Amino acid sequence: MGRAHEVRAASMAKTAAAKSKLNNKWSRIIYMAAKSGVPDPDLNQNLKKEIEKAKREQVTADVIKRAIDKAKGANQESYDPMTLEGFGPGNSMFVIECLTDNHNRTQTAVKVALQRCGGKIAGSGSVTHMFKNTAIFSIDFMGEEEVLETLLLADCDVEDISSDEDVVTITAPSTEYGKIREALREVLPEGKEFLEDTVAWLPLNPVELATDKEKEQLQRLLDLLEEDDDVQDVYHNVVGLDLVESDEE
């Protein structure tokens, strides 16, 4: 899918791989989107967008329906987005996005996970300045020139447009996400969907880990973060990964 996809695949660890983790993640996101407005995707564009994303990740209709039904009730449960930063083994750096109903619990859990794996939690801004918050879209219904023309007409600020076979990938500042998404949706053929539609933290200076111990610690850290239901997505700056299994329990 082009250079942007390769960079992203090498530098970004998505922690929603396990099915239960995936369902929990999207249940929270859809619940909050439904709570933020009318719990009807036909009337709530934010909810509609999140449902589309969830379906692309193969979240079942039942999980989506339960989250919306929960939002329709008197339940006052509330989750807040929370971005934590940390230094991991070697020269690794982490941006950890969470959705939580208890900031202290989430920060403590992430802090302990980092410490157990040779790292430490960092103050706000200590790590994110080494990453770029980037809007990323991948589509297969237009060519590069058509995409460029469409986005220029919509006055969108784009960083890069690249193609690999029939897939075109667009990267742009995260602030342009909504404008680009709307421009592309206006020309989206019936029955087509985005292959990718997200905002991610991409590292400015990727690094490689030097030792097997550092790789073991990194794998262990990723596993611990994946086990935490409050953690939604994890981004790091490590490339050239050939992770080894950790013996630590």
Tell me about the biggest sheet? 5 strands, antiparallel
Arithmetic mean pLDDT: 88
Spatial gap, N to C terminus: 37 Å
Approximate shape: globular
* CATH fold description of the largest domain: Alpha-Beta Plaits
Strand content: 15-25%
Order of strands in the sheet with most strands: 1-9-3-2-4
Ranges where pLDDT stays below 50 over 5 or more residues in a row are 243-249
Number of domains: 3
Number of strands: 9
Number of helical regions: 8
The helix-and-strand class reads: alpha+beta
Helical content class: 40-55%
Notes on the structure:
Helix 2 (19-35) runs antiparallel to helix 3 (45-56), helix 2 (19-35) runs parallel beside helix 4 and helix 5 packs antiparallel against helix 8. The longest helix is centred in the N-terminal third of the chain and has 17 residues, at 19-35. Strand 6 and strand 7 form a beta hairpin. The protein folds into three domains: 2-72, Arc Repressor Mutant, subunit A (Orthogonal Bundle); 80-129 and 206-236, 2-Layer Sandwich (Alpha-Beta Plaits), CATH 3.30.70; 130-203, 2-Layer Sandwich (Alpha-Beta Plaits), CATH 3.30.70.980. The protein has a five-stranded antiparallel sheet. Strands 6-7-5-8 form a four-stranded antiparallel sheet, sandwiched between helices. It is built from eight helices and nine strands. The protein is 41% helix and 22% strand. The chain has helices at residues 2-11, 19-35, 45-56, 61-72, 103-116, 144-153, 177-186, 212-227, and strands at residues 12-13, 80-87, 93-100, 120-122, 131-139, 160-164, 167-173, 196-203, 231-236. It is α+β, with helices and mostly antiparallel strands and 249 residues long.
